[in-house]
Amino acid sequence: xxxPRAGISNPTNLFDYFGTTHEIFRxxxxxxxxSIPHAGERGRNDEERVKQLLTKLLPKKFSLGTGFIASSExxxxxxxQTDIIxxxxxxxxxxxxxLSSLVLPAEAVYATMEVKTYLRNIEIQDATLNLAxxxxxxxRRFYVKYGAEHGQGTRHxxxxxxxxxxxxxxxxxxxxxxxxxxxxxxxxVSRNRAHLHGVFVIKQGWYFQQKFNSTDFMVRTDNSLFxxxxxxxxxxxxxxxxxxxxxxxMPDPTMRAKFxxxxxxATIA
Length: 269
Hints:
The chain is of the alpha/beta class. The chain has one domain (14-268). It is 35% helix and 26% strand. The strands form two sheets. A nine-stranded mixed sheet has the order 3-4-1-2-5-8-9-10-11, sandwiched between helices.
């Protein structure tokens, strides 16, 4: 048996590892993506590259997809198309799943992300509006707790009022100073009543986080990929995740009426 190497207590420096990963990612975008001759396909390629990065760095219980989010509270309401959805498929599943897109119940969603190649005013407005719209559709989510009483199965409705987390990822901020982008983000979240839990800018290496109960942003200009992933993990790990209540998605109005009556007795998590 080989003897353990002496004197090595921490052979991996996390900042070095994430810094190198960040640099490889940036180089791939700058050197490889331009080989795609179609602008729309370059944009889709940018989204797929972010998905690959997240798949590598997030725990496996978090699935990644592209598509739409259906609201259980507002029957028939669907979110705008979302570039990246972080969702649960251990206890839940999409309502509809096709080759290029998913329709997910709000209950299955941990977080939503918008991916932009460039972060000009129009992209910031578009992203914050989409993210805010999606969060408002998912402010109440309904789950089922199964149990047993007196030898019979029980089914209790549980609800949470915590909406999915919202993130914005951009390849190029198109500004020289992080303070300039922070001001633009503050203006956009104020206008669209949005909240951005994290903003990661790849080329400039900036990470922004919106302050609690404020439209102002904190910014980090060092080890930005590390802080983005570390905060993302911390923010989505505590999310309540149980089997969804299918009742509000049923087209039968009788079942919906019974569900609405049961909501008043629902446990709030």
